[in-house]
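Dear Dr. H.,

I hope your travels went smoothly. While you were away I took the liberty of generating a structure for the chain from your last submission, since the lab meeting agenda had it listed for discussion. I wanted you to have the full record in hand beforehand rather than looking at slides cold. The sequence, exactly as received, is reproduced here:
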Amino acid sequence: MKSIMETTFNILYLIIIWYLVIKMYTNKSKVSNSNKEVASIFALAFLFLAIGDTGHVGFRVLAYINGGLEQNSALLGYGKLATSITVTIFYACVVEMWRRRYNKPNNSLIYALFGLSAIRIVIMLLPGNEWTSAEPPFTWEILRNIPLMIVGLCMAFLLIHDAKKANDKTFQWIGITILISYAFYIPVILFARNIPAIGFLMIPKTIAYLAAAFIGYKGLYNV
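The corresponding predicted structure, in token form, is as follows:
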């Protein structure tokens, strides 16, 4: 039953996220001139997210079909690596989106956020991660997630703060959905190994990203 529920959700998620990404690119002519740059980065961010999740979520579906998760640890590992890289690029896009939306100058904070994103990618490429292992080292999982947590949470608070000042409801809600996604993701990282049921928090975490995509699409593409 668990595998059926997860597989059904994963397939629906991929259909919806790709539908939204395609709509962003096919409706780019509807974007106002003042929003064109931000909308382009927004679409690029979710394109990377969709590509990575197709590997991660799609490989989980294949693993269930091909004998189960335990028998396909290498496949799952490659999928997890793919989504880990693309979600890092996603948040780098969010940084640039925030910078352009609110006319922020390039400063030490922005360089630090981009630097943390680059550091995370370097960490993920190191052999200590053991991506194809049935049980990768927990220490490395924490280590590679620290930069992402800093960048993601920082952007959530900055978006909420600056959007509220500008009465920009679209990006205020995007910031809130990012914050919600981390509220569900952090317990998974910390406790899912010992309490597998916590892994189900990835479902509302994923729904939060879908909500961000939908909110941004409605707010930027004038539909």
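Two observations you may find useful: DSSP finds seven helices and no strands in the chain. Helices lie at 2-26, 36-65, 73-101, 108-124, 138-165, 169-191, 202-220.

With kind regards,
E. W.
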